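Dear Dr. V.,

Thank you for agreeing to look over these. As mentioned in my earlier message, I'm a first-year student in the group and I'm still getting used to reading structure tokens, so any feedback on how I've presented them would be very welcome. I ran two proteins. I've put each sequence directly above its structure. The first is here:
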Amino acid sequence: MRPARFEEQFKKLTEIGSVARGKSKHRPRNDPALYGGAYPFIQTGDVKHSNFYLAAYSQTYNEKGLAQSKLWQPGTLCITIAANIADTAILKIPACFPDSIIGFTAKPEVSDVRFVKYCLDSYKGQMQAISQGTTQDNMSLEKLLSIRFRVPSYDTQKKIAAILSAYDDLIENNRRRIALLEKMAKEIYREWFVRMRFPGHEQAKFEKGVPVGWVELASSEVFDVLSGGTPKTDVSAYWDGQIPFFTPKDAGDNFYALDTEKHITANGLKSCNSRLYPKETIFITARGTVGKLALANREMAMNQSCYALAPKMAGPVFFHFMTIKGAINYLKGVSKSGIFDNIIVDTFKTVPILMPCEEQIVSFNKVVGPVFQQILGLMETNALLAKKRDVFLPRLISGKLPVEDLDIRFPPSMAEETAHEA
């Protein structure tokens, strides 16, 4: 039997802070009159795609939108209860959000909002389980407030949050570095192939604004456009293997896809229309979210909602990746011919690409190759940091690993060794 002191550590969110649903009373919610102002409007997808703190958003409210909503302050913990269940992020900016997001504000000297976020992350599976059973999974505020979470003393919360947030702070710093490096690669591409200020451009001859020797080709002439397929989902022998299975869900915001949400077996690969695509294959999403790109960091299979683009020119793919990335807006425009946004094979026959001389392509690849390698290295470091953090998370939150057994001064790179010794 557990001691009373241990049981007393289990509390509802309302005992350690204030909780309320977001506000978006206007109907219809997509009324254009509400949007386009100065007030960030956070949605469930923004919470899902944030790391720890939330400062990025894709929509804003104007004064009319704000009037039927509420401006939450930095430090508010956002908890999704519809669409994406139990995703969390801490606001870094003042923002509005709808009633599909719960806002939690910590009581001073009672709860540390960072600890509460980690606590909810460790209970995510339980919260998702109680949200199932309807046409669309959702978690009511009543259900959320019925859950008791293990909440130790305020000092212990701060110590646990300090250990875990050391990883997330490093991850966030690396994300900023990745964003700068990706911006650098885009700027180099624009400088060389859009502004035409490539090395030696002063001596180059131009005709109608295009260097002599450059040619305009259809994308289908530059790439082999390859399809994918999905093994039967009701055959267990096809799934949970070692082969990454790329789908639109795996197309993130960065250049590379390190791994995938789902994996298939060798028999699963044989049973479907996908081949095993090599490292640095360019994947492009063709349905739903159209035109998201990712470079495969390892061999991967692919489903039918994407295409694999294999450059017909041998060598590094950096130029070709940046070229098709530059054509995305055009691709998105021509993909909207049907009821659903989509790209078909023939779409690539209509997307023009200005191809420079091979010498310039080779030179560009040499210049940006190290930039791509730094991006990949930082993404791999972040994956390792997240893995190490996730080793600590459930043990610290559950109390199985007392925080007193850890030296919180250790560098995060030593965390795994320290946990093993503990």
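The second protein is here, in the same arrangement:
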Amino acid sequence: MGKRNKNQRKNAAMMLDSDDDSSSVSSSSTMRSDRMSVFGTEEVEFNKDTLLDEAVDALFEKRGATREKALGMIIDAFNNNLQYEFVEKKCVTLLHQCLNCIKKGSSKEICLASHTIGLLALTVGSGDNAQEILEDSITPLSQALKSGSELSKIALLECLAIITFIGANDPEVIEKSMQIMWQLVHPKLGSNVATAKPSTAVIAAAVSAWSFLLTTMDGWRLSPKLWQESISYLSGLLDKDDRSIRIAAGEALAVIFDMGSLDKFAAEAKGLSDGSLPEGNKSKDGFSHIQGLKAKILNQVRDLSVEAGGKGSAKKDLNNQRNLFKDVLEFLEYGYSPETSMKIGLDTVQTSTWTELIQLNYLRHFLGGGFTKHMQENEFLQDVLGFTPTKKHLPRERMSNEEKRMYRSPNSALNKARTQLLNKQRMQSEGRNFGQFAINVGDE
């Protein structure tokens, strides 16, 4: 067995060492040419499982370029097909080799390994394997975030967000990951560890990852002090010059408002100032501060929704900002969440809350070109986003009109099955005081 594994790794290394230039490691065309040159046959004849096994074996090699190519081939395979059988056999091996790549690899290798771990978690779905991925990864990822390049930090943040979203079964575990992200961009005063100031891209990535995980939380679990700190910080980010930071902060605030947390926080502080607890002027000052924050944010959102383009401003980015903050403004003033729909093959996935929209956009961004394939075949992703592809069960052309109506009915067994997970998400939005935000701004 040992000899066979050694030979497999040698073959894998020979296959992947044939070209030192790994700049296009994730390119599908490069993968195809590599496969044909290795096997000497038409691509259709190669064994996919063998190719993946050899790519994993190549992760044991010393040459960084070899490991990078192997990771690129694994990512390509995970994007193009759901590798359920493969991860059943190789989940632990692949995870720990990726963690080794993060510990000792180049910036590019860290990015590839981080993305691979995220894809691995998305493939295994919720359960014991996902919990193990999170438990084994959270410390190496947090350590790697303390140094490294801008690109590697962004990849590490995205990986941490994905594996926590899937593998955490306890709010305290989610809070731990959120705190790691928060500490990266907003370190506590008095820290003995000197850290470099994060770039604008890292700040935007950290805020987006933080708000993605916030969609899974019950706002009541976080203390008023933490809410006030986070909301104040996010409000400050709305004034930054970088548009990506403003957009990320706007989305995070939208999630907070969607959860009703700021109104609950304000009501709690108002109750204290009315004498529910003997807090003196402290609680009254806290309530006034919250009201001031709400007024400030409303004005910021209104300004950003109509901002004129400055010199060198990309029109697409400017339009994205205007559209986002118009939606946020409408939500703050009238309580209307943006309703969106996206075509996935012959079907459509829809969102009706900020929480659902943020989750959809984050998962779509992470999967990139593999998003459609995963949406059509990945049952975990379908459950999270409330999506059931028609052709998964019966081809559309073979379904009668009556069958289609039954299938799409909210009382169908399929829709009832996916409702359980969605109920958890929607409970976060209960208690929202629609239309109260603008009204309360002027209250004393």
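From my reading of the second output: The chain has a mean pLDDT of 76. The first helix runs from residue 2 to 16. Does that match how you would interpret it?

Kind regards,
E.
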